[in-house]
Amino acid sequence: MTLEHFDLLLDKYAHLVTSIGVNVRKGQSILIYAEIEQAPFVHKLTDAAYERGAARVDVEWSDLHTKRAFLENAPEEALATVPTWVPVRSQNIADANTTRISILSADPDGYSHIDDNRISTLEQAMQRANSPVRQATMNNDLDWIVIGAAGQAWAQKVFPDLEAPYAQDQLWAEIFKVSRISVDNDPEAGWAAHVAKLKTKSQWLNQQNFKSLHFKSPITDINIGLAENHFWEAADSADKSGHTFIANMPTEEVFTSPDYRHIDGHVQSTKPLSYAGTLIKDIQLTFKDGHVTEAHASTGEAILKQLIATDAGASSLGEVSLVPDPSPISQSGITFYNTLFDENASDHLALGAAYPSNIQGGTQMPLEERQAHGQNESLVHVDFMIGSADMDVDGITFDGKTVPVFRNGDWA
């Protein structure tokens, strides 16, 4: 790296993630998911976690070349059949409440030349096998965080006019910037102020207790019912022991649970979606009575339709999020081709499962009771971006009144 003060900035990043990110406590077990290219950053995270008293830090390394070779060459039955140790390990991670740190850095379009059916076969098999840890994560039974690191192929996708080393430097610089890290600042203090600001928005929305939201722009016109006793969250969350953590860095959103039974209209994406190693662009979805009736995309349409067909819940929504267009990531003008970053530049929706914490008392409710409140269930949870500077959002009250929430992409 030629980025000035890179080691200092990376140290600050590692300490931020392990402090207010997952808020490591003495005796915790940590599992880090990372591409092998990110070994230097993983080493810093490991050291920072042990400094805070972690009992054990393990790493699940990933390698795009190895995954790609498997997808290209494995027989069909191998793609559909997950080794028996995968669901066993997933259940063990969930049962042990292992803290999870997921580092996103891979090429967002790394599987673009591979047959869509093969990608979907493997993706759905892995989703089923890893269901225990997915459910524990979405229920906040354990502490978790998703962060970014500048992979070389990803950096060149974001900055195609720069040579590889400079593109990677530039992407790292942007990651540090939107994560509120600089040479001379205190990132933890900056994050505390940011979390407090976002919470004022979620508190206001919770006070309104809207029946539904109406999103309107030149390309979107959709009414989204909100789940009974829905709860808006912002920035930080709490696990079942009351321990706080921040699940996404960066984050600019406030989000809640839609009512999967009451969604009608059409919506079009405003940023590309990287899903299962494939870019899906210009998503267009039509909803009627809570489910997708038409789905189109200019690229990746087959993958999109296979995603929606994963199970019954994949054709409805599990999350609705508000992000002001003046947010730092949006104003950077950069398309990151990575949902963690792009969703924090734009209002977004998620196909699939809802977060139990997005209804009052949801983390203690059985699935059937949550569904009765309008929460969706699925093997998948996939965000796609719909916000823009010309998006208006209205809250509809139970007595039919309209309350402006967003005007021209910003808080009204």
Question: Briefly, what is this?
Answer:
This protein is of the alpha+beta class and 412 residues long.
What this model shows, in words?
It is a single chain. The chain is of the alpha+beta class and 412 residues long. Helix content is 35%, strand content 25%. The protein is built from 14 helices and 21 strands. It has helices at 6-21, 39-51, 64-73, 76-80, 85-95, 116-129, 131-138, 152-158, 164-178, 187-208, 301-308, 328-331, 339-342, 367-372; strands spanning 29-35, 56-62, 99-104, 144-148, 212-216, 221-226, 233-234, 236-238, 244-246, 254-256, 258-268, 273-275, 278-280, 284-288, 291-296, 317-322, 348-352, 381-385, 392-396, 402-407, 410-411. The strands form five sheets. It has an eight-stranded antiparallel beta sheet with strand order 15-14-11-6-5-19-20-21. Helix 6 (116-129) runs parallel beside helix 11. The longest helix is centred in the middle third of the chain and has 22 residues, at 187-208. The radius of gyration is 20 Å and the shape is globular.
Keywords:
412 residues; five-stranded antiparallel beta sheet; 25% strand
Write the layout of secondary structure elements.
Layout: H1 6-21, E1 29-35, H2 39-51, E2 56-62, H3 64-73, H4 76-80, H5 85-95, E3 99-104, H6 116-129, H7 131-138, E4 144-148, H8 152-158, H9 164-178, H10 187-208, E5 212-216, E6 221-226, E7 233-234, E8 236-238, E9 244-246, E10 254-256, E11 258-268, E12 273-275, E13 278-280, E14 284-288, E15 291-296, H11 301-308, E16 317-322, H12 328-331, H13 339-342, E17 348-352, H14 367-372, E18 381-385, E19 392-396, E20 402-407, E21 410-411
Parallel strand pairs: 1-2, 1-3, 3-4
Antiparallel strand pairs: 5-6, 5-19, 6-11, 7-10, 8-9, 10-16, 11-14, 12-13, 14-15, 16-17, 17-18, 19-20, 20-21
Helix pairs in contact: 1-2, 5-7, 6-11, 8-9
